[in-house]
Design goal:
Blueprint lengths: L26 E4 L5 H16 L6 H22 L4 E7 L2 E9 L4 E9 L8 H15 L3 E7 L3 H9 L3 E6 L2 E6 L12
Helix pairs in contact: 1-2
Length: 188
């Protein structure tokens, strides 16, 4: 796998916060070029259901996934060079990624992806809450795009106070405002 653009450098300002859940200890760290192989595996895991019925030989599937991951990575690091590219890890074990652009007045939640073994344990909800808390501290809202076909992600975002503001096929654009949720206990 050849990736032409490296990971953007670490930026100042992201609080070093744990994002653990009751069943999943985790923390955030900056991504680096050494993470690209597991990021490619993570990307492939997000496409598994979509590719189940495609009658390609394994080599063709791998080539397709390599090309698609490279295209996505190049788009993200060139279009969002000012974003935070974070690994979600349990110790040194990667669980997923969080890509976030923190610019007023709306932070852009570019991507949250978790490996299958880390899904369904509250970690995605914890990451969303961490993004919202960070935005709230800066008096900002949060915006994201989710595939129209990803109804489970849309339900998760709605539970966290996101509203659909537009349909931009094949995506739904959703936003959250800090006024929608109460300030967490002990935070002023």
């Amino acid at each position: 796998m050849s990736i032409a653009l490296p990971m953007p450098p670490e930026r100042d300002g992201w609080p070093r916060i744990p994002v653990s859940t009751a069943s999943q200890p985790a923390a955030l760290r900056w991504l680096c070029d050494d993470d690209l192989p597991w990021l490619r595996a993570l990307y492939a895991s997000t496409r598994e259901a979509e590719l189940v019925g495609v009658p390609w030989p394994a080599g063709m599937r791998d080539t397709f996934l390599d090309q698609q991951f490279a295209a996505q990575h190049l788009h993200y690091v060139s279009a969002f060079a000012d974003a935070d590219f974070l690994a979600v890890c349990a110790g040194v074990t990667p669980l997923g990624r969080l890509y976030l652009r923190r610019t007023p007045p709306l932070h852009l939640l570019i991507d949250i992806s978790l490996f299958p073994h880390a899904r369904g344990r509250g970690l995605g909800a914890t990451l969303i809450a961490a993004v919202q808390d960070n935005a709230r501290m800066q008096a900002c809202g949060v915006e994201l795009h989710v595939l129209q076909s990803n109804s489970s992600a849309q339900r998760l975002y709605r539970r966290h106070g996101f509203d659909v503001v537009a349909t931009e096929a094949p995506y739904v654009r959703m936003t959250w405002s800090p006024e929608r949720l109460p300030t967490p206990q002990g935070v002023n």
